[in-house]
Amino acid sequence: MKIKTPLTELKLSVPAQETPISSFLTASGTFCDGDLLLNQKGLRLMSDEKESRPSEGKELDFEITPADLESVKVIGKGNGGVVQLVRHKWDGKLFAMKVIQMNIQEEIRKQIVQELIINQASQCPHVVVCYQSFYHNGAFSLVLEYMDRGSLADVIKQVKTILEPYLAVACKQVLQGLVYLHNERHVIHRDIKPSNLLVNHKGEVKISDFGVSASLASSMGQRDTFVGTYNYMSPERISGSTYEYSSDIWSLGLSVLECAIGRFPYLQSEDQENSPSFYELLAAIVESPPPTAPPNQFSPEFCSFVSACIQKDPRDRSSSLDLLRHPFIKKFEDKDIDLGILVGSLEPPVNYPR
Fold first, then answer.
1. Exactly one of 191, 209, 248, 322 is catalytic; which is it?
2. Where are the beta strands (DSSP E) in the chain?
3. 3-class SS at 45?
4. Residue 292 class from Cβ within 10 Å (0-12 exposed, 13-18 middle, 19+ buried)?
5. What is the distance between the alpha carbons of residues 155 and 221, in angstroms, rounded to a whole number?
6. pTM (2 decimals)?
7. Is residue 322 flagged as an active site residue?
8. Nearest-5° angle of CA 193, CA 197, CA 200?
9. What is the pLDDT of residues 207-249, one digit of tens each?
10. CA atoms of 91 and 328, how far apart (whole Å)
11. Is 10 helix (H, G, I), strand (E, B) or coil?
């Protein structure tokens, strides 16, 4: 006699409200959502005033179509999709192409549409360029600038810690990117962390990934695991309160301190067996005093910079514009510090940030 499994034991992760992706497709296979049109020819933003052309304002002297790109290798995999290193067949230029499957909830779909619009419009030397995006066979493809030394997370894996002069140079570039996002684009990044701060062999540091991967991970049952996102959230975000641009400043402070000490600031060591649980770490971020830079290891200017970022009350945090004028940043501006000397000598990462 067969024993039937009680239905109550079955756990299905089915969204309560989900709009079929087909609802946003035209007969020609174009993804259409509000002013956004996306297909194999690229992304177009429609408005009453004009039609925005694909790759408008991007620094390429040739067009990109899916047929023009050939895959070199897979350089990253994540919950949201795959990142491939691709080469333009005729020009030879390398790009990082992120492919995102679109079988997801309506709320997350709206978020991704917003991120596509942000990427399309962003024109800042300290934000990773999105040259083009496509929709084909149920997937979005974003053709991104290839940062050949990975991220600051990859850098500290090789050098363990980053010295203050190099950190100041990196911080200045990130802050310039945040000033652009906060003051000109009026965008909260929401996912600042070392793995989203990309670098190349020239020592350029650029902000990447406007929350797309984080949103996708959250939509796929990852809320109760550390996937490198929630641990950088500000206390107000974790507690469910409203948040503003200052939440990015908290995340920047944690990221900078991690690069300086070589470990996530809320961990006492890299010993994973003795690391706090997910909920213990979230409770510590919300309830415990914020971490600080050890004054016996770092300069007063660096300690002050970290403190200006990692304040429990968001009203006490400095703005990105104020931080650009901080003594820590100013201290090394005239020293001709070349971050390219540090990162240019490193091995390219095996896995690209995702």
1. 191
2. 31-33, 36-39, 42-46, 51-52, 69-78, 81-88, 94-101, 130-136, 139-145, 197-199, 205-207
3. strand
4. middle
5. 30
6. 0.78
7. no
8. 155
9. 987 654 444 444 433 333 333 368 899 999 999 888 899 999 9
10. 42
11. coil
